UniProtKB/TrEMBL annotation:
<dbReference type="InterPro" id="IPR003739">
    <property type="entry name" value="Lys_aminomutase/Glu_NH3_mut"/>
</dbReference>
<keyword id="KW-0408">Iron</keyword>
<dbReference type="InterPro" id="IPR058240">
    <property type="entry name" value="rSAM_sf"/>
</dbReference>
<keyword id="KW-0004">4Fe-4S</keyword>
<protein>
    <submittedName>
        <fullName>KamA family radical SAM protein</fullName>
    </submittedName>
</protein>
<dbReference type="InterPro" id="IPR007197">
    <property type="entry name" value="rSAM"/>
</dbReference>
<dbReference type="InterPro" id="IPR013785">
    <property type="entry name" value="Aldolase_TIM"/>
</dbReference>
<keyword id="KW-0411">Iron-sulfur</keyword>
<keyword id="KW-0663">Pyridoxal phosphate</keyword>
<keyword id="KW-0479">Metal-binding</keyword>
<keyword id="KW-0949">S-adenosyl-L-methionine</keyword>
Length: 441
C-alpha cells in the first residue's frame, strides 16, 4: 500500500510466510504473538534477496526483520499468547505491553516542535539543532519494510495520536524562510522514498524558491537501497525521482542521501548496486548510518565488511548509533562498553576513508553524545570519556566530559557524572545510579 507498488507482507500473512519458509513451526507462533505488539512489515526484495531462510532465526537479516519471542518479556509474551482469539482481551494485553516499551524515547512528541509567528506549531518539523531542520512529510511516515529495532515503532502501530506528520510544503517553507541559521533540511520519516515522486517533489522544489538560499544541503534519510532498491532503478517512478535530485544538485544544492545499512549483505544484491550508481549519477553524495544491535551486527568484522563495501561503492560512513531505550531493547540492546569496542575494532581494520563513522553515538533528549571510550583518570578510577556532537545547549558541544565507567550501562540514563564538573553535561541522565568499581580489562 505505497506509492511505488512494493509487494509487502504484514500482519497474519507474516506468520504464514514464516510457516512456509522455515523448518521450525515454533517460529511462526512467535511471529503471530510478537507481531500483535510491535509492527512488522517485509518487502518482496527482503523476502527474495536478503533473508537466508535456511539459517532463520539466526540469520542476521531475519533478526533484523522478523518478530522473535525474546523481543518481549516472557510474561508479556504469555499474556498476549493467552489473549489470542479474544479481541477485547487482546487489545488490553497489547496496550499494556506497548506502554511498558517506552514508546516515545527522547520526548519526541512534545519537544523540538517549532512554532509559526502566529504561535501555531509547525507540524511535521523538528528543529532542535540550529543548522538542521527535520521534515516529516505526511506521506512518508512508513517504510518499505520495518527494522524490528526501530525507535519509531510507535508511529507504525496505527495509533494516530502517536504520529508526527506535517502541514504541507507551504507551512514548512514559511518556517524555513524565517530561519536563516538553518543550512540543512533533512527529509525523514519513516522513509520519504515510500512517497510517490509527485508527492515528494513539492517539498523538495520548494527549497529552491527565493528566500531559501541559506538551505545549502538537502538530506534524504532512506532505507530503500536495502528494502526496495527498485524504487531507484526499475519502478516507473524512479526516473522522475532521480531527475528531481539532479535538478537540486544542478541548482548548486548539496544533495545527501543518508542511507541506513545495518548489515553488509544488504549491499550485495545487483539491484542495490544499480541503485547506488543511479543515485550517485545525479550528483548526490551517499552517507550511511545504523545502530549497533545484538543479533544483527554486534561484531566488528561485520562493521568492517560493511564500511569496506560502502567505501568501494562511494558511500561515506557517517554515524554508528547506540540503540535507543525503546521497543525490543531487551533483545537488541548492548552495553556502551561493547559498542565502543566494536566501533574501535572495526575502524582499526580500515584506512582513514573507512574511519569516518562517528560513534557509538547516543541520540538523547539533551543531544547527540559520542563515546570516546573508557579512560583511567588520575587517582586510578575508570571513567567513560564522552563528548556532545550536537546539544540542545550548543555551549556543551565538543567539550570532553566523564561519566563513571559502568560495564553494564546501555544508555545515557544509566550514566552518572564522574565528578562535580561533569554534572552540567549529564544533567539529563540519571543521578545516583550505583557506581561499579574496576576497569575494562
Ligand atoms: C541527528 C539529528 C540531526 C542531524 O545532526 P547532524 O549532526 O547534523 O547529522 C538533526 N536534528 C535532530 C533532532 C537529530 O537527532
Ligand atoms: S528504515 Fe528507519 S524508520 Fe524505517 S523501520 Fe527502519 S529504522 Fe525505522
Amino acid at each position: 500500500m505505497n506509492g511505488s507498488g512494493t509487494r509487502t507482507v504484514t500482519g497474519r500473512r507474516l506468520a504464514a510466510l514464516v510457516r512456509e519458509r522455515c523448518a521450525d513451526p515454533g517460529l511462526a507462533r512467535d511471529v503471530e504473538v510478537v507481531s500483535q505488539v510491535l509492527p512488522f512489515k517485509v518487502s518482496g526484495h527482503v523476502i527474495d534477496h536478503l533473508v537466508d531462510w535456511k539459517s532463520a532465526p539466526d540469520d542476521p537479516l531475519y533478526r533484523l526483520l522478523f518478530p522473535h519471542r525474546d523481543m518481549i518479556d516472557p510474561a508479556h509474551f504469555r499474556a498476549v499468547e493467552r489473549a489470542l482469539g479474544d479481541p477485547v482481551a487482546l487489545r488490553g494485553a497489547v496496550a499494556a505491553v506497548r506502554d511498558a516499551l517506552n514508546p516515545h524515547p527522547g520526548e519526541q512528541l512534545t519537544r523540538n516542535i517549532p512554532r509559526h509567528d502566529d504561535g501555531d506549531q509547525v507540524e511535521g518539523v523538528q528543529h532542535k539543532y540550529a543548522q538542521t531542520a527535520l521534515v516529516f512529510p505526511r506521506h512518508g511516515q512508513t517504510c518499505h519494510a520495518y527494522c524490528s529495532y526501530c525507535f519509531r515503532w510507535a508511529q507504525f502501530v496505527g495509533d494516530p495520536g502517536l504520529r508526527i506528520a506535517d502541514d504541507g510544503p507551504r507551512r514548512v517553507t514559511d518556517y524555513l524562510r524565517r530561519h536563516p541559521e538553518v543550512s540543512d533540511v533533512l527529509f525523514t520519516g519513516g522513509d520519504p522514498l515510500v512517497m510517490r515522486t509527485e508527492l515528494l517533489q513539492p517539498y523538495v522544489e520548494a527549497l529552491l524558491r527565493p528566500g531559501l538560499e541559506h538551505i545549502t544541503t538537502v538530506r534524504i534519510g532512506t532505507k530503500a537501497l536495502s528494502f526496495h532498491p527498485a524504487r531507484l532503478v526499475t519502478d516507473p517512478d524512479a526516473g522522475p525521482l532521480l531527475r528531481l535530485l539532479e535538478r537540486l544538485a544542478r541548482a548548486g544544492r548539496h544533495v545527501a542521501v543518508m542511507v541506513h545499512v545495518s548489515h553488509p549483505r544488504e549491499l550485495e544484491p545487483d539491484l542495490t548496486r544499480l541503485a547506488v550508481s543511479a543515485l550517485r549519477s545525479t550528483g548526490a553524495e551517499l552517507r550511511s548510518q545504523a545502530p549497533v544491535v545484538r543479533h544483527v551486527n554486534d561484531d566488528p568484522a561485520v562493521w568492517a565488511d560493511s564500511w569496506r563495501a560502502q567505501i568501494a561503492l562511494g558511500i561515506h560512513p557517517y554515524y554508528l548509533f547506540m540503540e535507543r531505550d525503546t521497543g525490543a531493547r531487551r533483545y537488541f540492546g548492548l552495553p556502551i562498553q561493547r559498542a565502543y569496542e566494536i566501533h574501535r575494532s572495526a575502524t582499526t581494520r580500515l584506512s582513514g576513508l573507512g574511519r569516518t563513522a562517528r560513534g557509538p553515538v547516543m541520540s538523547t533528549t539533551e543531544g547527540k553524545v559520542t563515546v570516546d571510550g573508557p579512560t583511567r583518570l588520575p587517582g586510578g578510577e575508570w571513567a567513560f570519556a564522552l563528548r556532545f556532537l550536537q546539544a540542545r545547549d550548543a555551549d556543551l558541544v565538543g567539550r570532553p566530559f566523564h561519566a563513571r565507567w559502568d560495564p553494564q550501562a546501555q544508555w545515557w540514563s544509566e550514566l552518572a557524572p564522574f565528578a562535580d564538573h561533569d554534572r552540567p553535561f549529564l544533567a539529563g541522565a540519571a543521578p545516583g545510579v550505583p557506581v561499579r568499581q574496576g576497569g575494562p580489562r
